[in-house]
Amino acid sequence: MTNVFAIVNAKGGVAKTTSTMNIGYALNKLGKKVLLVDLDAQANLTLTVGIRTDESLNISDALTDGCKITDIIHKVNGVDVINSGRTLIEREHTISNSITGAVKLKSLLKKIKDKYDYILIDCPPSLGIYTVSALVACDSVYIPMVAEPYAWDGLSRLLETISIIKEEEINPNIKLGGLFFTNNSKNAQTILGKTIISEAKEQLGEKVLKTTIRTNVSLNESIAVKQNIYDYAPESNGAKDYMKLAKEIINS
Ligand SMILES: Nc1ncnc2c1ncn2[C@@H]1O[C@H](COP(=O)(O)OP(=O)(O)OP(=O)(O)O)[C@@H](O)[C@H]1O
Ligand SMILES: [Mg+2]
Asked: N or C: less crowded end of the chain, CB within 10 Å?
């Protein structure tokens, strides 16, 4: 059965895109069929896997019935990727106001789901229509978090949104898959960092995943050269940490 994961945090720069891409490629290394969906108008995932953002079609066309979902699936080193682009911003109002609005992504994915073991959706840093669409379409939510000041900003609203989506039966089976700390080497040593990590464990218990992603320069560099970490630096701590995380996720 296919598992659909939304990678969400309303806070920017917490490694949502880095995690979506590298958990996806780690799952692919483990023999799984993977689709990555870029749902962020910044199109960082699209660019990082090497798809141009001036491609004529992107996810916003499928969401507005301008193309079929199969028209925007790109094959990139063994993983399928649905690209994004700036038109997601221009069409946000139209999509929010259409009858199918937040359920359209779910119905699009339903048409192609069976081909994959895992579908990972990279969300924008907000709780707008696109993130809500991902929460409606997913089975589990994974939250990357950085143990820095303001780390909790927006998180309680996200957790509240997940409970509303569940309780109002918009997506009754939605689960919090887990929260994991990213870019963590420096933060884990500071008093503030330690406090944030222990608060997270107090509030979310076993939903705080055991694997943390260490700060790793190869992860940074791999993005600059538009490669996943397994092609760029397979022996790096970044590659090891994301593999450990992918295994923890599939075994949980
Ligand atoms: N473990 C890590 N070690 C070093 N750098 C990292 C690590 N994880 C992420 N980064 C860097 O942090 C920056 C932000 O990462 P990323 O773009 O994945 O965050 P994001 O949450 O998707 O951001 P946005 O909210 O803008 O979409 C990038 O430059 C990335 O290379
Ligand atoms: Mg991003």
From this structure: N
Map out the domains of the chain with their CATH numbers. Answer: 3-251 (3.40.50.300)
Ligand 1 centroid – CA 14 distance (Å): 6
Is ligand 1 within 6 A of the CB of residue 219?
yes
Burial zone of 195 (CB within 10 Å; 0-12 exposed, 13-18 middle, 19+ buried) = exposed
Nearest to 40 by CA among 145, 155, 121, 146: 121
DSSP string covering 147-172: -STTTTTTHHHHHHHHHHHHHTTSST
* Surface-to-core class of residue 226, CB atoms within 10 Å of its CB (0-12 exposed, 13-18 middle, 19+ buried): middle
Confidence band of 207 (pLDDT split at 50, 70, 90):
very high
Structure tokens, 8 = 């969400």
- Give residue-wise pLDDT tens across range 23-82: 999 999 999 999 999 999 999 999 999 998 777 899 999 999 999 999 999 999 999 999
Q: Quick one: tokens of 75?
A: 């094959």
State the closest ligand 1 atom to the C-alpha of 18, by its place in the atom list counted from 1.
18
For residue 88, give the H/E element and its range. helix 87-90
Contact 96, 132 (CB under 8 A): no
User: Which of left, alpha, beta for 148 (phi over 0: left; psi -120 to 50: alpha)?
Assistant: beta
The verdict on the CB of residue 131 being under 6 Å from ligand 1 is no
**Residue 81: strand, helix, or coil:** strand
DSSP state of 103: G
> What span, in angstroms and rounded, lies between the C-alpha atoms of 61 and 71?
10
Pick the ligand that lies closest to the CA of residue 16: 1
The model's confidence at residue 185, banded by pLDDT at 50, 70 and 90, is: confident
